[in-house]
Amino acid sequence: MSRQQGLHLLAQGVYAGIRNVSAHDETDWPEHEAPEYLAALSVVGPWFEAREPVRG
Q1: How many Å apart are CA 41 and CA 11, to the nearest integer?
Q2: Has this prediction a pTM greater than 0.70?
Q3: What's the rounded Cα separation, in Å, for the pair 42 and 29?
Q4: Residue of 1, 23, 13, 16 whose CA lies nearest to 43
Q5: What pLDDT sits at residue 23?
Q6: 3-class secondary structure per residue, the chain
Q7: Cα separations in angstroms, 38 against 3, 12, 35
Q8: What pLDDT, on the 0 to 100 scale, is given for residue 21?
Q9: pLDDT, tens digit (0-9, with 9 covering 90-100), for 4-49
Q10: What distances in angstroms separate CA 29 from CA 12, 34, 52, one per listed residue?
């Protein structure tokens, strides 16, 4: 598996696990979870910026 594939899967997981839940669940999250979610997102951003274009 390549780093780009890993980025793709991580981004999908973060999106599904954070955004989708918050959009469809009325429950408030515990305050301590926000930094954990930001930490997960902080991995996606730099990897995305450093990615190599896929040709072909």
Answers
A1: 8
A2: no
A3: 19
A4: 13
A5: 65
A6: CCHHHHHHHHHHHHHHHHHHHHHHCCCCCCCCHHHHHHHHHHHHHHHHHCCCCCCC
A7: 20, 15, 5
A8: 65
A9: 888 889 889 888 888 766 666 666 778 888 788 888 888 888 887 8
A10: 20, 8, 36
